[in-house]
Each structure stands twice: as C-alpha cells, then as structure tokens.
Design a protein that fits this description.
About 30% of the residues lie in helices and about 30% in strands. With about 300 residues, the protein is α+β, with helices and mostly antiparallel strands. The chain has two domains: about 5-40 and about 150-305, ApbE-like domains (T-fold, Roll), CATH 3.10.520; about 55-140, Orthogonal Bundle (T-fold), CATH 1.10.3980. An eight-stranded antiparallel β-sheet has the order 1-2-6-7-10-15-16-17, covered by helices on one side. Helix 6 (about 150-165) packs antiparallel against helix 7 (about 260-275). The chain is globular, with a radius of gyration of 20 Å. It starts with 6 loop residues before the first strand and ends in a 6-residue tail after the last strand. About 40% of the residues are buried. This is FAD:protein FMN transferase. Its cofactor is Mg(2+).
Length: about 300
C-alpha cells in the first residue's frame, strides 16, 4: 500500500553525468536546491576535468612540493590513498595508465608493454605523502596524478544525505548517475523499506536481473560494460588492473554493493569486482548489507541479500 506524501524531483548535470534528486516531505524544494549547490561545490574542489581545482593543484605540483587543501578534500584523499595501498584493485593514482589506454576516447589503443611498465612507475600509492597536521598532499614523482573519480561520488552522495536529514527530508533518492542513496523510509511501503532494482549490466539501462528490499542504504555498481575497446576481435574493458597495467581478467560483468555509506560501497564494489566472486566473511563487515554478482555467462549470485526475480 502506498502512503501519500509530497514529492519533488530535480534533474541536472554534474560530476560528468545526469543527476536526479527526488525528495518527499516538507522543505523539499529548498533541500533539492541546496543539494545541487553542495554537489557543485564538491565538483569544483575535486574535478580533474578542469585546470583549476584542489585535486589539480596537487597534480600540477607533483614532484615539486606539498599542496595544502581543505579538510574535506584531505579526508577524501587520505581515504582514497589508504584504500589504494591495500592493493585489492582500487587505485586513485591510476590516471597516467588510464590516459595511456584512453579507452572510451577517440585515441584508444593497446599500448606496448614498455609503455605500460613506464606508466606503472607513476601509479604507486606509496609515493604519496600525506601530512594530517598541515592538511597537505604531495605526489613525490613528477608525472603522477591523483583522480578521485572512483570514490568521489560516494562521498558527495553521503554528504547530500546528511544535508537532507538536516533539512528534515523524510524520504528521498539521490541518483548520481547510477550511484544511488535511499534516504529515510520509503513512501511506497508500509514497512518503510525500499525496493531496489539491480541493473543487468549486459542490457539497456533499467533492465534488471532482480530486486532487493532493504531499509535506507546505498547501492553502487562496478562493471566492465560501459566503455571498452575492440582490437583484432578482442575486447578490452576500461577497468584497468594497476598490478598488471592491463584490463582486469574477470568472469564478472558487474557487481552491485548495498551498504550504509556510499563512499564505503564505492570501494567495496571494486574490492569484490577485482576479487571476481564473493569474499568469505565479507557480509559480516559493519555497515555492509550484501552484494549481487552478475557474470558474463549470464548467471547471477546474491551474497548477504535476498534477490527477488
């Protein structure tokens, strides 16, 4: 049974994608406007698609000197670098290697092994110096690049959720181009839980492999289906393994993680994707609900959540 409540939706562009924000309850118009302003503020600090931002200041100073950044930016950089040092696949320094392959762009190609080896020297997360007292970041080698694209949406989505709670938004959906956060209680079910569709990564958007029903949470997907390069009949996807310098060899097509925090789900989706299968004991991690794995051969596996067809 559906509960009647005021609903407002606002759609805009940011973070390189289409952003759709839907809020239910009082003060929704102000909450939506404030959310887009907050997203723009974070994008200004974190983008690597413009010459001026806090992250680009770090990159421009690579091999030269530390750069002081805002507390919020430092905290996110620190989280990204520490996760990268775990060496499970996520690497916030992988930019030089991504640019070498250029998958998804007109100059995409398969690089020579020597070129890959040279770029791998520039993607070592141990070559980042973090000073928490001074709030500075220093990329020790010239040519290194920090790119928070693999974690920033999660952080921003979590901060928008915080903002909405401050505005008293009773229910809402934050959609940052597929990175989803469900805030509060669902207005569509008496038990307040959300019905969340899991995208089939091998089919057009909004075609699902099934649905899960959960309380307020986030859903983040990592997969190989969005960008790829085909050379001599072989397909190379865009998720590069910094350990080899080449696209990850995997039987997976995509994995969707459900968690309490979106920034956690971002990194955990990559952890599972690079693992290629469920990790024993992973669902016992605090703040984790579970995950759904979709394999290239079409079979689907749920871990920790009940997937309904």
């Amino acid at each position: 049974m559906m509960r009647q409540t005021m609903k407002q939706t606002k759609v805009g562009h940011g973070l390189g994608t289409t952003i759709t924000l839907t809020a239910y309850g009082e003060m929704t118009a102000a909450a939506l406007d404030a959310a887009f302003a907050l997203i723009a503020e974070y994008e200004d600090r974190l983008t690597v698609n413009r010459q001026v931002s806090e992250v680009m200041a770090i990159n421009h100073a690579a091999g030269q000197h530390p750069v002081a950044v805002s507390h919020a930016t430092f905290q996110l950089v620190q989280r990204a670098v520490l996760a990268s040092r775990e060496n499970f696949g996520f690497n916030a320094l992988i930019g030089p290697l991504v640019k070498l392959w250029a998958i998804g762009f007109a100059d995409a190609h398969v690089p020579a092994d020597q070129a890959i080896a040279a770029r791998q020297k520039l993607i070592d997360p141990m070559q980042v110096q973090l000073d928490a007292a001074a709030q500075t970041v220093f990329l020790l080698q010239p040519g290194m690049e920090l790119d928070l694209g693999g974690i920033a949406k999660g952080e921003i989505a979590d901060r928008v959720a915080d903002l909405w709670r401050a505005y008293g938004v009773a229910s809402g959906i934050i959609d940052l181009g597929g990175n989803l956060v469900f805030v509060g209680t669902s207005p569509h079910r008496l038990d307040g839980q959300w019905v969340i569709g899991v995208q089939d990564p091998q089919r057009p958007r909004h075609e699902e492999v099934g649905r899960v029903i959960l309380p307020a949470c986030t859903a983040v997907t990592s997969g190989i289906y969005e960008r790829f390069l085909i050379v001599d009949g072989q397909q190379y996807h865009h998720l590069l393994d910094s350990r080899t310098g080449k696209p990850l060899q995997t039987k997976l097509s995509g994995v969707t993680v459900f968690a309490e925090q979106s920034v956690v789900a971002e990194t955990e989706a990559k952890r599972l994707f690079f693992a290629g299968q469920p990790i024993a004991g992973w669902t016992k991690t605090p703040g984790i609900f579970g995950a759904v794995f979709v394999y290239q051969d079409g079979h689907v596996q749920a871990d920790g959540v009940n997937l309904q067809q």
